Amino acid sequence: MAKIKHNNFIDTVDEVIAGAKKEGVVHLYAEDKVLTGRTIQINGKEMFHFGTTGYLGLEQDIRLKDAAIQAIRDYGTQFPLSKSYISHPLYYELESKIEQMYGIPPIITKNSTLGHLAIIPTLIRDEDAVIMDHQVHWSVQNACQLLKLRGIPVEMIRHSNLEMLEDKIRQLSSKCNKIWYMADGVYSMFGDYAPIPELLTLSQKYTQLYLYFDDVHGMSWKGKNGTGFIFDAIGELPENCIVVSTLSKTFGASGATIFCKNQKLRDKIKNFGGPLTFSAQLEPASVAAAIASADIHLSTEILSLQSDLSEKIEYFKSLLEKTDLPMIALNNSPVFFLGTAMPLTAYKMVQRLFNDGFYVNPAIYPAVPIKNTGIRITLSRHNQKEEIKALVEAMKFHFPKALEESGNSKYKVKKAFRIAETIPQIENREQETTLVIQYETSIVKINKQTWDELLGKQSTFDWEGLLFLENAFTNTDCAKNNWDFHYYVITDKNGIPVLTTFFTYGLWKDDMLASESISLQLEEKRKQNPLYLTSKVLGMGSLFTEGNHCYINKTHPLAEEAIMLLLEQVETLYHQLNADMLVLRDFEEDEQLNHIFNNHGFLKINMPETCIIQNNKWDSMEEFSATLSSRSRKHFMKEVLPFEKAFDIVIKEKLTKEESEQAYKLYQNVKNNNHAINTFTYPIEVFQKMENHHHWEFILLYLNNNNNNNNRDQQSSLNLPIGILFCYKNTNHTYVPALIGMDYSYAKEFQLYRQLLFQAIKRARELKLNRIDFGVSATFEKRKLGATVISKIAYIQARDNFSMELMGTLQNDDKIH
């Protein structure tokens, strides 16, 4: 079957950033003639600067500036030669001073990204393994992808989850020599710390464990000689630890530093680290500025600078603690994070603070999970107490207004960041607006005529179909296929429907829409743990259905308000159920919906394309073939129609016990052979209940006697089908071949799959049903039989990015191999 088109991560990021750019909060330009560090001018407005990562303000220190200027005069703007051959005259002095700071000779690279690319492939041996914290910086994760070329295991754990880390160590310990755990010292968005004491204890317990830290945000403002957060936490660098730090950001210059205790390893990195060998070296001005900064770090002045910043951090923190603002990871780092959950709230808050004269950074996907959007506020020595206090006052004033403007609430924010909060109950209620909402947990409470007029005639979710699904998937003994149903009907005060939809809550495989190769890797793990990488999902529609699950009366003046009301109700239910993911699915491209859902914290992804046949009206094979394109007509006449005579075709509403057992085996064959849409296997009870429902029927294909030979007469002697379609008759309008089963030993020789599709078309015509919902996958085959292919999208919200990032590593693994 044809591969499904899957969402492109780059397109998703592009859409998020484009939305933020449209709101005027990213991709800005500073307009200052002179920068001081304290203020910054954007769009003609001067603002206090609370977005820098130069926490000590050394980038504005006159000594660093003078040194850089003199170096350009003395040595030029650059020294265009690989450092492997010769370093320019200032390098030796810088390396000596950095060694004095740390007590260890450094390796100096152009920047930390190139540093990781130099170190990691050299450091990690073929017999080693890597475990990454899923929030470790992108530059570390990117460098680790190179390891997969050599077959080195690269695993991922949830952020600072030591229990998960220890479990991974145990799994890898018998297979690998060294196991490297990679993390940030200070995380750049939330400002939280790596759990250093616990990691050191774990490394003592497991001697195979080695630690690799990116400490670029912990540099200078912390530690003796400003050596950073990690060195302050661990003291002397142990043999099993590598630290990457920076001469950029707080250090005030450019470049990055690498520290390891082992001299032989240091030499190896310098000799074999690609970016060290083949990239240009730091410019003389950068090296001279770094030397001037190192002199400050080696003097007692660094203590005064650190103390000054620390006092301001504590002052800011003390003011924030007196508010009810949802600050995340409030500690003594210079990085602060105000949670907003919804991107739109962040945009509104940033705009308001801009207007009040405060520059801050929006923190958006992919730097944070889409529903963990917020505002990153950073302090530096440039900030004065009066503007710090003014910022807190502005935040207190504007936050509730930004929430109100974006249809958000403190409750939603706290739930998004797992901050304890009372959960409001869902109830049927008339809104203060002119909308009325009906919420039910069974279709029997919904008016049948209204439902079928709005959402009937497609897939298996007309009123009768949903009654079947509730009976088949509610209160079952199989947790994998046990669903709760939730129905929403929103009308205006006159009872005119504005929006109608339904959701189901149950377990999904996280790789449901991932590539088949990823699913195959995960299914191997599920042999040991059947629920590995699965999530509790509140999803629009159900896993059994596809199509437009949401009716929206777009011409109604309250349509957008109804969408907002639905989101409010569904997100409340999402938190009440403590679901891992919220999915709105099977929409066609719509600019208005894109804008609404993106601003409310949903990521847009591509769904598998769906196939339908409409106006299925013809009275002969000649008329049917005439509806096809010339190429498809040739295909039909050669690859489909001639094979029909090989089969006895039977249509039944009831199956014998033997037929039922065979039908389920055939379904399992297809399910186990196709991971393009990876769901749980339905239990046999679902198929048995089809036989007791008057809308279901079965198309069975038997090989007739003319096509039996010694190699294939077993099925014939048993009189068992080799192919089956499980078909639903939706009202008097739509035919739905919902599931398929095949014996693959006959599939190629007799074009079995194509024949089953054709028989569905014929049966729909016999029943005078003019539409066929062919569903997803195998679009190439269905198109050749006259189906129209329709692109679909979904919008998702997840508690965190872990599953998506983990599958991203598996996707890269697949591409490498």
From TrEMBL:
InterPro entries: Acyl_CoA_acyltransferase, Aminotransferase_I/II_large, AON_synthase_class-II, PyrdxlP-dep_Trfase, PyrdxlP-dep_Trfase_major, PyrdxlP-dep_Trfase_small
GO MF entries: transaminase activity
Cofactor: pyridoxal 5'-phosphate
Ranges where the Aminotransferase class I/classII large domain occurs: 47-394
Keyword Electron transport: no
Organism in which the protein naturally occurs: Flavobacterium xylosi
Pfam families noted in UniProt: Aminotran_1_2
Gene3D superfamilies recorded: Aspartate Aminotransferase, domain 1, Type I PLP-dependent aspartate aminotransferase-like (Major domain)
Name of the protein this chain belongs to: Aminotransferase class I/II-fold pyridoxal phosphate-dependent enzyme
Domain of life: Bacteria
Keyword terms of this UniProt record: Aminotransferase, Transferase
